[in-house]
Amino acid sequence: MIWTVVRVGLLRMWHGRTEILLTFVVPIAFFTIFAFIFDEQIGLGKSPKVDVALVDEDGTDLSRNLLTALAEQEMLRVYSPDGAPGPGVFDAADTARKLVLSGGLSLAVVVPEGWTASFSGPEGDVPGIRLLADSSDPVATQVVTALVQQLSGRALAARAQKQIEAVLSLSGKPQAAAAVARFTRPVRVEVVDLLAADKANPVVSMYAAGIAVMFLLFGAVGNAGSLLEEEENQTMERLMCSQLGMARLLAGKWLLLWIVGIVQVTVMFLWAQLAFGVDLLGHLPGFAVMTVVTAGAASSFALVLAALCRSRAQLNAVAVIVILSMSALGGSMVPRYVMSETMQRFGKVTFNAWALDGYTKVFWRDLPVTDLLPEVAVLVGITLALFGTARLLARRWESE
Asked: How far apart are CA 214 and CA 221, in angstroms?
């Protein structure tokens, strides 16, 4: 009898293809996605390059040698002004600061004025090399800090060697030892966080956006499943016999999903403000714009999945696979800065990535609503394209 129970269970699983999908396909799919993200060997490319600007306020041979060595590093992509033949080096930090604040670069390396001369003075007078950083990508800051310390040490060692040779030829060993001491001091690197310094719990706002977008998708798909229930209980047939029509039915469903989605995301961020100090009210215009277009895209996506599936169980299984995959690639589950550049480009296929980029501009960079135009345009386009797709797929309900 025990084996009879086992056999019946296996037969039920065999005939219920959804269970097979969730048991065997979903784990393999997610293993593959995370392997591509974290394993450089199969990750479709090495770790992403760090976009930096170089600023030489010192204007000496030592500072130029250091910045030249940085520009030659493969893991860095040095900013170059339009039309410039090679990597650009600014002589003041203002332009580089603006590039970091706007999201164009991860950070800027600034060699301050008097840096080289300070090695000839008392030990405490050596100014640190500044990193003007966007701390939303902590990996970039750590990588560049290590590179600056390593390469500055090499540049100082080379400078010390020249000083030793010059002093030995003129004075002797005691003066040479003093030169070595001056140029073997540790180089300080000061990280200046340009974006998070004046914010309350800035990282929480980014987590809130990622989680909100993912569960917005789940909520929309769950509500869109009412179409399949109406098909099963023959309510759909009666609706098609009325003057409502499929286009109006889908429009009504989309409007419902859109309204519920906006409320869902708003409640999420209200809780984030009340419990964790996220500044929602201070970013209300940008939040409203991004929430409206993101909820619209999620609603159209949910209608497409509902029109594709034949039952609520099938919809639930497909939704788990598709939404979690989109969330992993788009940055809702794994920060995109840890992904290779190729995986980051793949992530742009999902509207999770566009939505999170928009929320990042709002809550992290404090950019005006006008700077949200690329994300808004893409999400509106996705909304219209997916709604049109859902309308085409829904023809099967009209013909049944």
From this structure: 11
* CA-to-CA dists, residue 137 to 48, 49, 107, 246, angstroms: 11, 12, 9, 46
| Domain boundary, last residue among 141, 174, 193 | 193
- Please tell me whether residue 108 adopts helix, strand or coil conformation: strand
Last residue in a domain, options 193, 221, 244: 193
Nearest to 178 by CA among 133, 120, 124: 120
Q: What is the pLDDT of residue 86?
A: 60
Geometric angle at alpha carbon 363, from 107 and 79, rounded to 5°: 20
| CA distance linking residue 227 with residue 209, whole number of Å | 28
Three-class secondary structure of residue 132 per DSSP: strand
CA 213/CA 374 separation, integer angstroms = 18
In sequence order, the β-bridge partners of residue 110 are: 55, 130
Ramachandran class of 48: left when φ > 0, alpha when ψ lies in -120 to 50, beta otherwise: beta
pLDDT digits 0-9 by tens, 119-136: 765 555 567 789 988 877
Q: Tell me the residue range of the domain where 302 lies.
A: 201-399
Q: Which residue has the higher pLDDT, 10 or 72?
A: 72
The gap from C-alpha 256 to its chain's centroid, in whole angstroms, comes to 29
Q: Report the distance separating Cα 51 and Cα 337, nearest Å.
A: 12
Tell me: do 114 and 214 sit in the same domain. no
The reply to whether 102 and 186 lie within a common domain is yes
Q: Is-contact 188 252, C-beta < 8 A?
A: no
Relative orientation angle of helices 61-71 and 138-170, to the nearest 10 degrees = 140
- Helices in 102-137 by DSSP H: which ranges? none
The pLDDT, as a whole number, for residue 357 is: 92
- In this structure, the answer to whether residues 216 and 355 fall within a common structural domain is yes
Q: Considering the domain boundaries, does residue 13 fall inside one?
A: no
Residues 313, 258 share a domain: yes
Number of domains in the chain: 2
